[in-house]
Specification:
CATH architecture of the largest domain in chain B: 3-Layer(aba) Sandwich
Number of helices of chain A: 11
Strand content of chain B: 15-25%
Largest sheet of chain B: 6 strands, mixed
Distance between the termini of chain B: 32 Å
Number of strands of chain B: 10
Helix content of chain B: 25-40%
Strand order of the largest sheet of chain B: 6-7-8-3-9-10
Number of helices of chain B: 10
Number of domains of chain B: 2
Structural class of chain B: alpha/beta
CATH topology of the largest domain in chain B: Rossmann fold
Radius of gyration of chain A: 19 Å
Largest sheet of chain A: 2 strands, antiparallel
Strand order of the largest sheet of chain A: 1-4
Order of helices and strands of chain B: EEEHEEHEHHHHEHEHEEHH
Distance between the termini of chain A: 54 Å
Oligomer: heterodimer
CATH superfamily of the largest domain in chain B: P-loop containing nucleotide triphosphate hydrolases
Strand content of chain A: under 5%
């Protein structure tokens, strides 16, 4: 009995990781950079939702819309101001800039809203569905459903639309894409917009499960989701999905059967083992270096 | 020559420096509508550099490029493609992980006008345009004999078919001038023969001008109406295939003294 309910909570947690991991993997796939500020976009999304629900008393749909809009805009602005000027710079410079943006957002939040933890209101209630001896919370079901919807929609978007095609083309060869008339800058912008919009959705699911809002809230989920993206094969969308779910399940199982304190260590140990065996991640494409 | 014909490309005194090195200097070229022009010269003469300037991959240091009468000084790579210059590459640069059909569809990027929002909501405008351009892409593929491979990954095509797909993808951007960078490279005589027919067919079917870089003299002399010879980044000669073949300076540049 315990096993099945742990598995389902693992899938719930993993779904959140998967949604965040999509942001990392898409940006990496197209802009070839690691956006370490992605976790902090989640944090901004959490604060926006908190204020929308708590201070302005907005309804949940309006709150979601507002959080997604703010995070999408933030993603576009971060890319324009911080990363676009470094398009030709070394990847190390971009990486350090991303870390800088991350600290900027964290400290900005601390300055604006103080470092004290705010309690996120209950949005999806505490209800649960009981099937036989198994009890699953409504929130877990909503989280898993959201993740499935996001995955299906994104896969269709990437595979079946002109923007998706352009994104795949840019991910392979930006020069050739430009020569086909594709504006690479706007494709990168759209990629950041989508990733950040998904971060907003993740922030709501995350805060519904762990209802505390603080300036470094995005760090740990961000790192975990990045791990999930690498685990599944960074650059691959199904990889982010698979990596996220597996990471969530491993984390919950580690907490349940081994040790709560060691669960994070176990998660990262699994990542190290996977990367030793398959350096490109579970679904990552094998890169043949031209010599 | 061709005074009655419309001029498509007019290049005046084009030059580019890389650091202290002058790669191309005082390069001039006129291309008229529906013309096939060859750009030849020994290795390292600057032929691909000229292509890169015409497409604005490199910003020229000097000179002017007029395309369809318009000065292109301020245009970007994307602008040049929108204006009507498309190209292929010496070392094939297909989107190898995309399907053959999707490679051509990327060429339609600016012709397809539905917004990302209508794509997400799968509105009728999205569906209708996707259907319309998929049909157009299939028509293009059938011109290049690739319709049966539409669903395959581009990387899995044989070499000759990849070269043809590059031309099909370039044609999808609806160019007025097509730049072919060594289209026959790596082809056997049989394939080269077929390629020559195809280049003529593209010109006649789409009514466009073609500028091609090529080392295969049989191809160049066979299909080009005019030839421009580049040597050490400078214009060496210009004329009909007959004039070029009998030009002592050209013979000297190719064979040495």
């Amino acid at each position: 009995m315990g096993f099945l309910s742990y598995l389902i909570s693992g899938l719930g947690l993993g779904s959140v990781y998967a949604i965040i991991a999509l942001g990392y993997t898409m940006v990496y796939g197209i802009a070839k950079m690691l956006n370490f500020a992605h976790g902090d976009v989640i944090m901004i999304g959490a604060y926006v939702s908190f204020f929308a629900l708590n201070s302005f008393g907005l309804s949940l749909p309006v709150t979601i819309l507002l959080a997604v809009t703010v995070c999408t805009a933030l993603g576009i602005v971060i890319e324009k101001l911080a990363y676009k000027p470094l398009r030709q710079a070394s990847s190390l410079a971009v990486l350090i800039t991303a870390i800088g943006v991350s600290y900027f957002l964290q400290n900005g939040a601390q300055l604006l809203w103080s470092s004290s933890t705010k309690v996120f209101p209950s949005v999806f209630g505490n209800g649960s569905i009981t099937i036989g001896s198994l009890s699953v919370s409504i929130l877990t079901i909503i989280t898993i459903m959201t993740c499935i919807v996001v995955m299906v929609a994104l896969t269709l978007f990437i595979n079946k639309t002109k923007t998706g095609r352009a994104m795949r083309a840019c991910s392979e060869d930006k020069g050739a894409s430009t020569l086909m008339g594709i504006n690479v800058n706007s494709i990168i912008s759209i990629t950041f917009a989508i990733g950040s919009g998904l971060a907003a959705i993740a922030s709501l699911l995350l805060c519904a499960a762990y209802p505390s809002v603080f300036p470094t809230l995005g760090s740990m989920p961000g790192i975990k989701a990045f791990t999930a993206a690498v685990f599944g094969g960074i650059g691959s969308i199904p990889g982010a999905f698979l990596g996220g779910l597996l990471l969530g399940i491993i984390e919950i199982f580690a907490k349940a059967y081994i040790s709560t304190q060691l669960s994070d260590a176990i998660v990262f140990a699994v990542l190290i083992v996977v990367l030793l065996i398959k350096p490109t991640g579970l679904l990552g494409a094998k890169q043949n270096e031209k010599v | 020559m061709s005074d009655s014909k419309l001029i498509v490309l007019d290049v005046k005194d084009l030059g580019i420096d890389f650091g202290g090195l002058t790669a191309v200097n005082d390069f001039c070229l006129q291309i008229y509508e529906k013309e096939i022009v060859g750009l030849i010269g020994p290795n390292g003469a600057g032929k691909t550099t000229v292509f890169n300037m015409l497409t604005k991959v490199y910003q020229p240091s000097r000179g002017q490029i007029f395309f369809c009468g318009e000065d292109t000084a301020k245009k970007t790579v994307v602008d040049m493609n929108k204006a009507g210059i498309a190209r292929t590459f010496q070392n094939i640069r297909l989107f190898s992980k995309l399907s053959v059909l999707d490679n051509v569809m990327t060429g339609f990027h600016n012709s397809i006008t539905y917004s990302p929002v209508s794509a997400v909501l799968r509105l009728p405008s999205f569906r209708a345009q996707e259907r319309e351009f998929t049909k157009k892409a299939m028509e293009l593929l059938s011109i290049f004999g690739l319709e049966d491979q539409a669903g395959q990954m581009a990387a899995n095509l044989p070499y000759g078919a990849q070269r043809r797909l590059e031309i099909a993808r370039a044609m999808a951007t609806n160019p007025k001038l097509l730049l072919l960078d060594e289209p026959a490279a790596g082809m056997n005589p049989q394939e080269t023969e077929e390629l020559m027919d195809m280049i003529r067919l593209v010109r006649d079917h789409f009514g466009i001008a073609i500028l091609l870089i090529e080392h295969d003299m049989k191809l160049v002399m066979g299909i080009c109406e005019r030839i421009t010879v580049l040597n050490y980044g400078m214009l060496l000669a210009e004329g009909t295939p007959d004039e070029i073949q009998n030009n002592p300076a050209v013979v000297k540049a190719y064979l040495g003294e």
